[in-house]
Specification:
Oligomer: single chain
Number of strands: 43
Strand content: 15-25%
Mean pLDDT: 90
Structural class: alpha/beta
Distance between the termini: 19 Å
Radius of gyration: 38 Å
Helix content: 10-25%
Length: 868
């Protein structure tokens, strides 16, 4: 169920079954200020206040039998001369209740001691009469002695009901309180019903018993409820005495607001159903000047877990300003929009009137013009401009003709304006692109330009296309370093070492190197070396290799190192961008921090090479060997590898992004802490490879083999597995497959999956023969025509899994959860279903159960027609 909601409302939903009908309970909660003009506060404040003030359950999400009010807070004596006792009173509409609050008292010789003075006293059930074993208030005081300086004393309750005063030790009086009883309070839990027998199991499980008293869902004492009325009156007046630190009496009216809630049984958010809501609860926090309003409603559902409800959306309106259903349909569509939905989610005014919104983060974007530095700059510019105007006027000139107009400063857009502003900006960009395309076409069609192109043999169209694609520029680190050195050599721009200033080359040089290392592939390709320079560079490389083999930091951009034997050389921080490494032997070389972007590696050997923090983006590798190579923190963006060997290589935090690997061998390779994105793998062999904390996002894996591979805490998000993906004897722990990921036709024979999540994944025609599934989630998976013979799925979840046409012969499904699963045309012959939950599962005459062990299996409730 997808929830669409404003930031200032909270929503609770709870499906329940009662009297053989399934219903979705809905509670919309709003935190309002106790002002003359109440404001709706953000949900974060609601839950923070609830944690600090209630310490328990706010609501059960089920409609109440009658409306009620609750109060959580303190009693204060600062409004009166007597500091030892006071009365508290609250009136909401026609409901009126008073309590007496005393300082600490103890029984002494059968008489109550004088109450101790106090400034504030918490009014809750721990201060009312009760104690362990009390039938109404087991968390209270007054029944058991307490230790006071080594003396056992019997206290009196601090809070008493005005109509039920205590007069003797351990006298059983009615506890006095204003706040909620917990659901497990004896007098409340007694209403849960008792008829939870076989008939309930067969017809009403997992719902409530037929004899349940609906007052169980009322949390307030009986004298704080509106008998036989399920709603508080809109705009009810209230008065609260002695429960605010500064005001003796709080007076006002409840906000005249109306909560609404819409549900849709379609994922696209159409066909909204309006759930009727009643204002059933007002929970006051007087000392915080807040009131929590709770509206309850119910929606009939077909599935007992509300799986048929795809979307729910609460809203709030002013009682005299209702919004039409079409408005909410539009909001739902906007929030579900993939492009602008996240922006619309910021617009609370679409679901809550702007006039009642309390302050929060969406109050508007910061106005940079009001920052002190910006304000000072603008004021300084204005002074200079005025001085220039005076000079121009004195010279007899019109300053308005000389000085440029002052740009108008505009306020930052409101959050509600962001969606339309973004659409306008995108439309403007499209118009500009169209205008440029038209200008380009008109220019190319010019007869004079065409004649010039023919005469000079210049490819004018090619030049225009290059400009159209966008010139990303060229980054030559050597040239940039030279420019920085020129700055240091210039007396005007040079640093002053005597003052401890470092030269600009020293300060910016490392940043240039990092920029080139991490972003070389983002700039235009370097020009190729001239034949003469290539030969000279090759001779230089031969000389160095004959000596110390150290090429650290060397500029080899575009160098031709083809067919050279440079095994064991050091290329740390070397620039090998666009280098030709075809046929080269570079085994055991150290490429730490090197740039190999756009390098050609055909029939190249990099066995046991080190590529730590190296940039291999846009590299073209074909029939190359990377056996036992180390790729730690390396970058592979848009790299292409074909028929390459990465056996036993190590990939740690390697960035695979938009890379392509075809027919590559990763046997025994180790992958850890990676997040490859849009990685395309075709016929990849990952046999015996290990993956640890890897997240594959929007990747494409075709005919890949993970035989005997190990996957620990890995995830596959929106990843496509096509062809015959093979996970035979693979070991997966805490792996997850989610989003649009599909594994149709994959093989998991004898695989081990522990605590894995595949909820909703398509597994049609898969083979899980003799696989071990422990504590994994396969709920809502499609196992059409799958083979699961001999599978061990103990304690795994298969809720609503579709096993139509599947074979589970001799499968071990002990204690598995198979509720609502579909077994039409399935073969469960010889399967062990001991203590398995097959309640509401779909079986018919086509389901084979020959020899299946079903003792102690949970078969109730049977599948109902509504859920079929």
């Amino acid at each position: 169920m997808k929830t669409i909601k404003p930031f200032r409302l909270s929503l609770l939903t709870r499906p329940y079954r009662w009297q053989r009908a399934d219903t979705l309970g809905v509670a919309v909660m709003a935190l309002a200020t106790l002002d003359d003009a109440p404001r709706l506060m953000p949900e974060q404040e609601l839950w923070k206040l609830a944690a600090e003030e209630t310490g328990g359950i706010l609501d059960l999400g089920v409609p109440k039998a009658c409306a009620e009010f609750l109060v959580s807070g303190n009693a204060y004596t600062r409004h009166q001369a007597d500091k030892t006792a006071c009365g508290v009173r609250i009136r909401v509409g026609e409901l009126d209740k008073s309590l007496l609050v005393f300082g600490d008292r103890y029984w002494m010789d059968g008489r109550a001691s004088k109450p101790a003075p106090f400034e504030q006293m918490r009014v809750d059930w721990t201060r009312a009469y009760g104690g362990a074993g009390h039938a109404v208030n087991p968390q209270g005081m007054g029944m058991a002695t307490v230790d006071i300086n080594g003396v056992h004393m019997l206290p009196l309750p601090n809070v008493e009901a005005s109509h039920s005063r205590i007069g003797a030790p351990r006298q059983n009086v009615e506890p006095g309180g204003l706040t909620a009883y917990p659901p497990d309070a004896p007098q409340r839990f007694a209403l849960i019903g008792s008829k939870y027998g076989q008939d309930w199991l067969e017809q009403d499980y997992p719902g409530f018993a037929q004899d349940m008293d609906w007052r169980f869902f009322n949390a307030a004492p009986a004298d704080q409820r509106r008998a036989n009325k399920r709603s508080l009156d809109a705009g009810s007046d209230y008065e609260i005495w002695n429960m605010h630190p500064d005001r003796q009496v709080l007076r006002g009216r409840l906000p005249d607001w109306k909560a609404r809630c819409f549900a849709s049984r379609r994922s696209d958010g159409t066909e909204l159903e309006d759930i009727d809501l009643k204002l059933s609860t007002a929970w006051f926090f007087p000392h915080r000047e807040r009131v929590l309003l709770i509206w309850h409603g119910a929606l009939p559902i077909r599935e007992d877990d509300a799986a048929d409800v795809k979307l729910i959306m609460p809203a709030l309106e002013l009682a005299d300003q209702p919004r039409p259903l079409d408005h909410y349909l539009k909001v739902a569509q906007q929030r579900l929009d993939k492009d602008y939905g996240a922006v619309h989610a910021l617009c609370d005014d679409e679901l809550v009137p702007e006039s009642i919104q309390g302050e929060w983060l969406d109050g508007g974007l910061p106005d940079t013009a009001e920052r002190p530095m910006v304000r000072n700059i603008l004021q300084g510019t204005a002074r200079k401009r005025e001085a220039w105007r005076q000079e121009l006027v004195a010279a007899g000139m019109d300053p308005d003709l000389v000085l440029a107009a002052v740009p108008e400063t505009s306020k930052p857009p409101a959050v509600a304006e962001l969606p339309e502003m973004l659409r306008g900006m995108e439309a403007q960009i499209r118009e500009q692109r169209a205008s440029l395309d038209k200008a380009r076409a008109d220019a190319l069609a010019d007869p004079d330009l065409q004649a010039f192109a023919r005469k000079t043999d210049i490819d004018v169209a090619g030049i225009a296309d290059h400009g159209r694609a966008g010139d990303r520029g060229r980054l030559d680190p050597e040239e940039v370093h030279a420019q920085l050195a020129d700055f240091d050599a210039n007396p005007v721009t040079a640093a002053e070492p005597s003052k401890g200033q470092a030269g600009i080359a020293q300060r910016l040089g490392p940043q240039v190197d990092r920029l080139y290392l991490n972003g070389a592939h983002m700039f235009d390709a370097p020009p190729g070396m001239s034949p003469h320079r290539a030969q000279r560079t090759r001779r230089r490389v031969t000389e160095i290799y004959a000596g110390n083999r150290d090429f650290t930091g060397m500029n080899l951009i575009g160098a031709d190192l083809s067919d050279m034997d440079l095994r064991g050389a050091c290329f740390r921080q070397a620039a090998l961008e666009g280098a030709n490494l075809t046929g080269a032997r570079l085994d055991h070389c150290d490429f730490t921090g090197a740039v190999l972007a756009r390098a050609a590696a055909v029939n190249t050997s990099f066995a046991a090479a080190i590529f730590t923090q190296a940039n291999l983006s846009l590299m073209r590798g074909q029939h190359a060997r990377f056996d036992q190579a180390v790729f730690a923190d390396s970058v592979c963006v848009e790299s292409v590898f074909e028929d390459c060997v990465f056996a036993d290589a190590e990939f740690l935090r390697t960035q695979w992004r938009e890379a392509t690997c075809t027919a590559c061998d990763f046997t025994g390779a180790r992958f850890a802490e990676m997040a490859p994105m849009t990685w395309r793998l075709t016929r990849g062999n990952f046999a015996r490879a290990s993956f640890r904390q890897c997240a594959f996002m929007a990747c494409e894996l075709e005919q890949c083999s993970f035989v005997e591979a190990t996957l620990m805490r890995c995830s596959f998000v929106n990843t496509v597995f096509s062809g015959a993906t093979d996970f035979t004897r693979a070991a997966m722990t805490a792996a997850s497959f989610c989003g649009t990921t599909a594994l149709d036709g994959a093989c998991f024979r004898e695989a081990s999956l522990a605590q894995c999540g595949m909820r909703g994944t398509s597994l049609a025609r898969t083979d899980f023969s003799k696989a071990m599934l422990a504590g994994s989630d396969f709920s809502e998976c499609c196992f059409h025509d799958a083979t699961l013979d001999g599978l061990s799925g103990g304690e795994s979840l298969f809720v609503r899994a579709d096993f139509s046409g599947a074979s589970l012969r001799d499968g071990n499904l002990i204690q598995s959860i198979l509720s609502k699963a579909i077994f039409l045309r399935a073969d469960l012959s010889g399967a062990n279903l001991f203590r398995a939950d097959v309640s509401q599962a779909a079986v018919d005459g086509s389901t084979l159960m020959d020899g299946a062990y079903t003792r102690s299996a949970k078969v109730w409730p049977r599948r109902r027609e509504a859920a079929a």
